[in-house]
Amino acid sequence: MLERLNQAMEYVESHLDRTIDVAELARIALTSEYHLRRMFSALAGIPLSEYIRRRRLTVAGAEVLGGERTLLDVGTRYGYGSGEAFARAFRAMHGVGPGEARRTGAALQSQPRMSFRLVIEGSSSMRYRIVDRERFRVVGRKTRVSLVHEGMNPAIAAFIRGMGKETLRRIAELSDQEPEGIVGVSDHLDPSRAEGTELDYYHGVVTRAEAPEDMEALDVPAGTWAVFESAGAFPQALQYLWRDVFTQWFPSNPYRSRPGPEIVSVRVSDDGTRADAALWIPVERPAG
To answer: pTM for the full model?
Structure first.
């Protein structure tokens, strides 16, 4: 997987001054476009589209300082339809406009080329199982929140506190399928997984029951799931588990992620510092 991903990075470099077709990148990487975006953002720490933008502006910056082309020619070469659009993007990355950079020889920012390699640490094993599920339903309360990579998500915490104990009790009583008990469900995540992007968050249960009038339902189609288990400090262990799934498990296993909700089942200790967690990720089986 990583070898093919590096071949896709070579394609990016050779097409910085041309249209970059993400579908072609996915073909080179022998995966789906959705999984490519997810894998790249997990491994690189930034969305694929942002990496391409930064690489283009890095190379454009060198040409601006070189002085061999007009500023408009440089901007057009790297995909900007007008001098104003190029100047705005250039200033956003480099902190200075292209004209000023050329006149003064200003120091510019640089996005290095990326390549990927697998680091074998061997410090811990990852417990997982593959589960085929018929369609099921999530019933509970729903809100729209921003993605937070580190620490507690304050919007989710406030949302849960506002539900009240009686509502949580009523939701919990509807649980009749695995994963049991109240779960957190993230749906409609941006494939980039960039911090600050929005998602739908459900605090509910997996059930066969219909949703009461004051609750919402999410119907989930049948499919295959990879279920990962973790125990440790809360919420860090759970967030590190998601990171390890995409940076360690997927690159060394033939499965790939597919669109769908992610489900988290958490049992927090009485003092709130530790938790046992299970993370359900929708996956596709390898072809053939």
So the answer is: 0.73
